[in-house]
Amino acid sequence: MTIKVVYTDRHLLHNPPYEIYDGVKTPYAEKAERLTSIMQSLKKNGYKNILSPKKFPLDLITQLHQKQYVSFLQKRSAGLKKTESLHPSYFLMDTYTPITRSTYDSARLAVDVTLTAAQLLRNGERVAYALCRPPGHHAEYKAMGGYCYFNNAAIAANYLSEKGKVAILDVDFHHGNGTQNAFYDRSDIFYVSIHADPAHTFPYISGFADEKGVGKGRGFNKNYPLPLGTTDSQYATVLKKTLADIRKFNPKYLVLSTGFDTYQHDPIGGFKLTIPYYEQMARTISGLKLPTLIVQEGGYNAKDLGKIAVSFLKGFQTKQ
Ligand code: Q9C
Ligand code: ZN
After folding, report:
1. Which residues are close to ligand 2, an ion, with C-beta < 5 A?
2. Could you tell me the CA-to-CA distances from 312 to 26, 154, 176 in Å, in that order?
3. Backbone angles phi, psi at 226, to 5 degrees
């Protein structure tokens, strides 16, 4: 298979023990098995182009995140014992995203994975898959949340924007509040997202249809909130609209924030997408014929994630 995948098993270090939901500790949904499941299926299906991440400079991160936030994460991670888990009272938007000893290193590594894949695009590759965790699209300028610490996709989009306009299509089940806010006043990066209606789903505070950008960025942010229970065909109808928006914007690159928590058997999500539909979804997106960076966001049914990812990537292999 020709699609290049950037991956490192050093994400295994990232293992927060629990998340807190309404005061109750529950097992951590964003677990390492998510990616080992995907890797295993990719290998079984003949994917051989697996690359390790290169190291990128910190300033690509601090262009999108406050310096104090970055050094806070670094210092607090380093100060913890191996089994400790910390919910600080600042730089934090929820109780799902603890700091552990490996948080800073793991979050930094996920950025490196994503930037390595983005660099492949800058060097002429058509599709690259950044298979990273922790995910990124909820991470704000100075706040972690929703299992995210650094905003991998936003950092990569910003890096790609040095070469031309970038569209970000976010198909995770949740709205990417961090990515939206990073580019809310910019007209060279267009953020468009399909997600569960924030009226009843995390992150609750953003992702509504009337959020359209500010200043120069007005018109370069678009949200398509959908009801719980959304099916393949309902999703496909909305996906077409986002692709029309992207064509109109005419970007040089596409960043695809890819969450598989839209799957019918996801333990956190509430849509009804089927495994075969992911291939169709990808084939439709691939019809844009844009150099595309696929960035892994959510998706929590570890057992089925491998099959979903293989289906999805297959849609990008089909010649049009
Ligand atoms: N008891 C991403 O998909 N809510 N983050 C979980 C479960 C938090 C999802 C509630 C969802 C965060 C990247
Ligand atoms: Zn999600």
Report:
1. 172-174, 259, 261, 298
2. 30, 22, 20
3. -125, 155
| 67-76, 87-96, 184-193: least confident range | 87-96
The predicted pLDDT at position 135 comes to: 98
Annotated catalytic residue 138: yes
Q: What is the atom index within ligand 1 of the atom nearest the CA of 94?
A: 8
The three-state DSSP-derived secondary structure of 208-251 is CCCCCCCHHHCCCEEEEEECCCCCHHHHHHHHHHHHHHHHHHCC
Class of residue 162 by CB neighbours under 10 A (exposed 0-12, middle 13-18, buried 19+)? exposed
Tell me what the mean pLDDT of segment 82-107 comes to: 92
Task: Please state whether the peptide bond connecting residue 203 to the residue before it is cis, i.e. omega within 30 degrees of 0.
Answer: yes
Q: Provide the strand spans (E) within the chain.
A: 4-6, 18-21, 24-27, 50-51, 127-130, 166-170, 189-196, 221-226, 253-258, 292-296
| 170/172 Cα distance (integer angstroms) | 6
Predicted local distance difference test score (pLDDT) of residue 88: 83
Q: What is the pLDDT of residues 219-238, one digit of tens each?
A: 999 999 999 999 999 999 99
State in Å: Cα 250 to ligand 1 middle: 32
Q: By percentage, how much of the chain surpasses pLDDT 70?
A: 99
> Considering only CA atoms, which residue is closest to atom 13 of ligand 1?
298
Confidence band for 319, pLDDT divided at 50, 70 and 90: low
* CA 203–ligand 2 middle distance (angstroms): 9
